[in-house]
Amino acid sequence: MLADSFSYFYQFADVFAFLVLSAAGLAIIFGMMGIINLAHGEFIMCGVYVTSAAYHAGLPLPLAQACGAIAAGLIGMLLEVTIIRPLYSRPLDSLLVTWGISLVATQGTLIALGSTFPGIDMPGHSFSVGDYSFSSYRMVLFAASLCVLGFVYVLFMRTRFGVHARATMQNPGMAQALGVRKGLIYAVSFGIGTGLAGLCGALYAPTMNLIPTMGTSFLVEAFVTVVVGGANVLLGTAPAAIALGIIRTGLNAWYGQVVGEIGLLIAVILIIRVLPDGFSGWLTRRSS
Amino acid sequence: MKRRALLAGAAALPLFNIVGSERARADANPIKIGLLEDVSGDLAVFGIPKLHGSQLAVEEINGKGGILGRPIDLMHLDPQGDNARYQEFARRLLQKEKVDLLIGGITSASREAIRPIVDRTKTLYFYTNQYEGGVCDASMISVGAVPEQQLSTLIPWMVEKFGKRVYTVAADYNFGHLSAEWGRTLLKPLGGEIVGEEFIPLGVSQFAQTIQNIQKAKPDWLYMLNVGAAQNSFFPQASAAHLDIPMGSPIKIMLGFEHKLFPPPVMANMYATANWFEELDTPAAEDFKKRWRAKFPKETYINDMGYNAYVALYMYKMLAERAQSLDKDTIRKVIAKGDAGIDAPEGHIVIDPKSQHTSHHMRLLSVDKENKVHIVKDFGVIQPYWLGQVGCDLTKYNPKEQYTPDHLPPKR
């Protein structure tokens, strides 16, 4: 009984972590900044590859993972300054441009590094509850997803940078008139978004097969979570991940992964139909 | 994985070019061979060794005077793992370029997408992968291994060695479903029992639930039919959860070279049957590997697909030279004699006239805790007998169908 209850929690935590970690970066870039970032998966892939390269160069895993997140963040800032900046009021153009970036990134990686990349030793600890044995690393992923949610909340709600960033996203002209350095805020926010994408890749690197197109396996979950979460990413991402996590875990457990995936997408359609502004829109309306 | 590409596919550019076409001298009236292999996209990891295998064979054959004195002009197009593009490119190669032979396709879905297009022409088509078997089509010659070669060997051995309770993890498309059906069919007379069967959508990379379902069902061994890079993530995740249950598969190691991609001991306890794997060390195999590595020194692994792609061109050369013609019907008369074979790096292999599938020298391999491959058993040469046994006879009639244990040819 205990084993079964724990296993439901474990499965939920696993799905929750995957949804939050894959969506966190996109929540900032798409949810706050309005850039439909189709290269999100490639920033995740970048995190994976840098982590693996740093790991094989001899760094311990946590440091290698930090390298992966930082590298994705820096590349993101560079792209923001050079390519993304003129696209803030042009969502359809941003879609096309970031899709182009994603094609260049996957094919460029294939040409430069080949069709596969050496994997990372999975941190091997496991623990048992009843008949089941569980990988400890999945619990690390769950903890990391909670930390990421906390980090994003504190950064945007409790720091001066966060106030400036939110002001800039709401009304760039007014924020600039009050002395906020708009360009810097945009670049840093975008970099934090891609850095979180890189962190997602870094964290999942030891659990996956490394190929240039691997980012796409995160893309659907990321977009779905952000859209269900709604415009205010600070309020929306966590409830969206909880709701979708419960739906998916239940369907996976009772009917298998095929139904789990179909059910997740149907749930998203229904939620958007009932709550067009997502969870955060609903929460904001209730509190006002 | 296609579903996940829907955002990208919505505005698909016509990325369309002839890559790597090894243009032969125009004056020598070359034999045109069309090749469809995915060298970009999710399947590039398999498509690139296949392209290399074809290129190596063409270079060797052209260097020794070509086929019937004519050089080969290999025309390669990259369908990028997209079945619609497979059809478009197959039409282009068959109708516009009027190739003498078509080779290629990775997934069974891509093969079934282009087979009807091939059937409307008089061109021969070589499919060079191991697959779930059953295609009875006079236009197609299958060079890869099929279930009676891979599964009729593997499954009884696994049952005897590890036990009768089996859990199937399969990709949710025609290869996975048909191979799972083969597993059920072969287990029945052995008294085996399927204690769990799970079909996973392509592109799914998270397996915590599957791992737990397996622990609950307590199987003796796992029948692994998961496909693609995302689904291969099962292995590190299962290893991290200390699942420690033996696994048998017709596609792992020799095809996906997972033991070269994941650090040990992730692939430990994996068993597979194959006609080719790079660790094969007979003199002919060593010689072949040396030639391959000389041309492609950076190849991660010479997998069975690449090997079969190489063998296919020599098979065609033998057929054309014995027929003294490139005409499909004349070539099929050579096959009908029942002794149309070549000395391949695995050993002597022959095309079966009834099914136009190839006999293979099958070996059972295992992976140890250091990810090293060992040959556990040598089954010798095994004929592709199943189609002939159930009533497919291409020397008499051509149904152009794919049969399975649950969908047999009508009695004639």
SSE succession of chain A:
HHHHEEHHHHHHHH
Helix content of chain B: 25-40%
Structural class of chain B: alpha/beta
Mean model confidence by pLDDT of chain A:
91
The helix tally of chain A amounts to: 12
Major sheet attributes of chain A:
2 strands, antiparallel
Note down, in words, how this protein is organized.
The complex is a heterodimer of chains A (288) and B (412). By secondary structure, chain A is mostly helical. Chain A is built from twelve helices and two strands, in the order ααααββαααααααα. In chain A, helix 1 (2-32) crosses helix 10, helix 5 (136-158) packs across helix 6 (160-170) and helix 9 crosses helix 10 (233-255). The longest helix of chain A is centred in the first third of the chain and has 31 residues, at 2-32. Chain A is globular and about 65 Å long. The mean pLDDT of chain A is 91. Helices cover 37% and strands 21% of the residues of chain B. Chain B is built from 14 helices and 17 strands. Chain B has helices at 6-9, 44-63, 83-96, 108-119, 147-162, 174-187, 208-217, 228-232, 234-240, 258-261, 283-295, 304-323, 328-336, 386-390, and strands at residues 19-22, 31-36, 72-77, 101-104, 124-127, 135-136, 140-142, 165-171, 193-200, 221-225, 247-249, 270-274, 341-344, 347-350, 360-367, 373-382, 401-402. Chain B has a seven-stranded mixed beta sheet with strand order 9-8-10-11-12-15-16, with helices on both faces. A six-stranded mixed beta sheet of chain B has the order 1-3-2-4-5-7, with helices on both faces. In chain B, helix 5 (147-162) packs across helix 6 (174-187) and helix 12 (304-323) packs across helix 13 (328-336). The longest helix of chain B is centred in the first third of the chain and has 20 residues, at 44-63. The radius of gyration of chain B is 21 Å and the shape is globular. The chains are: A mainly alpha (288), B alpha/beta (412). At the A-B interface, helix 1, helix 4, strand 2, helix 9 and helix 10 of A face helix 2, strand 9, helix 7, helix 8 and helix 9 of B.
